[in-house]
Amino acid sequence: MTDDNTFDHIIIGGGTAGCLLANRLSADPRKSVLLIEAGGRDDYHWVHIPVGYLHCIGNPRTDWLYQTEPDPGLNGRSLRYPRGKVLGGCSSINGMIYMRGQSRDYDQWAALSGDEAWRWDACLPFFKQHEDHHGGADAMHGAGGEWRVEKQRLHWDVLEAFAEAAQQAGIPACSDFNRGNNEGVGYFEVNQRAGWRWNTAKAFLRPTCYGRMNFEMWTGAQVTRLLIERNDDGSLRCSGCEVTTAHGVETARTTGEVLLSAGAIGSPQILQLSGLGPAPLLARHGIAVHHDLPGVGENLQDHLQIRAVFGVEGPKRRGLTLNTRAASFWGRSLIGLEYALRRTGPMSMAPSQLGAFTRSSPEREWPNLEYHVQPLSLEAFGEPLHTFDAFTASVCNLNPGSRGTVHITSPRAGDAPAIAPHYLSTPEDRQVAADSLRVTRRIAAQPALAKYRPREIKPGPQFQSDEELAQLAGDIGTTIFHPVGTCKMGRADDEAAVVDARLRVRGPGGWICGLRVVDASVMPTITSGNTNSPTLMIAERAAAWVRAEHGHRR
Length: 554
Fold this sequence. Notes:
single chain; alpha/beta; eight-stranded mixed β-sheet
């Protein structure tokens, strides 16, 4: 690298995708790499303790603290919208669930992008490349990679009973959700190592990148805009970016590429601030338009979880669920001691432990519902646990038709964008919401759960019609933190596509030289499951393309 802040590659965003890109692109010692992260280092102890997400979400040290716009589909409610603002990004504050989705997701991407490279069979090797699966290598899993996948380290009788009830309701048992068709019920696998959270900063930066002389990292550094230049032939080139740091405004320049990996909220915001986006939106905020890209910030998709809560009773007077086990000082002390001695128990818990994938109605060809089941309950995320024993069966529509937006609200990078998910805005999404609550009730009514005498607290058994249940879904639904799609890839004839199949940003006459988007925002459609691991696969693919195009050594 040189003294004038010029690098071969600049990566904007030290989150899930950015950390992997930094590792892969700095592997060639001849290529200088700068990683820019708006948040701080991941040295906060609650980042590393699995249950610490409770202390990281809603904390300005680790979260952007976004709020959605009031949403008609949620009956006017606004939601907290967590996004990681720390090294490791959302992998430092998320639910740690390892989930690829379904093979049909990637075959659909291939059709929408016009590139067979996105088919499931072609993507599978890129999942395996960085995987270190607890079961070792086989046709579907990798071993020895940086991304550790382990079984959970806990047991709850009420979860076992729910799994048995799901099978009685016709959902088969499943020991591995990551083989292309995730139908079934079983425990989620998690990105942990020996009871500690395993985020992408640990996996891909430490110690590898930190020991490389060609790697540089700026933290507490917010990109305010990309530097876009017009060539003599009218084409555009991205030559770097402007960054606000604790020392003032810096300019970083590249001789190769800028890889924008700021996530499904941050990436469209930065593009719009840089004059790349819907021309009317940019003009409204006084931003000069370099190229009218109407799809930037459109096509927002997310999984809305509908949290059904069932009170339970059992032979134990207290401690049947986390609600009462953690209610006393003595109970909390035992939980802490178990984690300190064995790295097991409730402090090792991912937010959701048991999962299930099934159909909202028999005519569905593929599972279109995902359950996240927890031995606890509360009124809303961030509020105290209920004082009575209960479990929560959150269900989400894996393939929502609703589409939202992310739009800047001013020309200043420090102002949060307007996030409007438009949940439940299609008749089909409202029907799936009503049907999914009926599936939940059918599971809860099975003999395996009868000994716990489950009683429906939310939404309440008095609500039965489609319209009542859809309305209640709007009252109790909340994000499951899976925003994607706001810089979607697509064919050349798709006017809403922001990037091509190789993730290059569209520009006059082709694409903008030196600019790629590499994160969950490029997904044309949301995956049928949790979105963190698919984002890593996208980054692995992009890294291979960048290395090949820029002459990296193997």
